[in-house]
User: Fold this.
Amino acid sequence: MMKLASIINEKDGSEMVLVPSGEFIMGEERRTVFVEAFYIDIFPVTNLQYKKFIEETGSPEPLFWNNERFNKPAQPVVGVSWKDAVSYTKWAGKRLPREVEWEKAARGVDGREYPWGNIQPDSMKAAYNQDPNTGSPALVGNRKEGVSPFGCFDMAGNVWEWCEDWYEEGKFRVVRGGSWLNHHYILRSAYRSCSYPEGKDNNVGFRCVKDA
Assistant:
């Protein structure tokens, strides 16, 4: 893991790490892409952070806010639509990641399959493949073996993460990373999926970025 500059965002208390400008290997087709420098949250936004946002803005509670499987303070917030996520990022003085930024932060520059390398996940690296009726997102940051080259946690499994981009213009927004529900194949850093922007699912959350 690289040791890079980090900052603390004053509004929500999140730690953000610098992803330097430069090229990386992106996508299933493994093309070389240049990305400008940016900061990204080390962890997905948690229920505790989202609670502060609700208290300061009067925004509505997420869909699973009172469900004990999903409402622990250190779990990633779920049950938020794309617009909910955007509202939070604006309140925090940040924004949602572009898909290319998300993948670089997750994958590093060397084209690896998963944030930690090329071996398949296990329970020490990611929260995945759980029973939809009994499973739940893990507390953020407790899969230390699954950290990305830039020091980001939970970028494979746990919760899908909203990105800024359209997957299909006017219809679906991009989500990345897989979730606690998904098979290991879907946790690969190059895997793309999508959701309706209005969707409020129990396996979709987000993290924020900020221009460097």
Remarks:
- The longest strand covers residues 160-168.
- The beta strands are 6-8, 15-19, 22-26, 31-35, 38-41, 160-168, 172-176, 192-195, 204-205, 209-211.
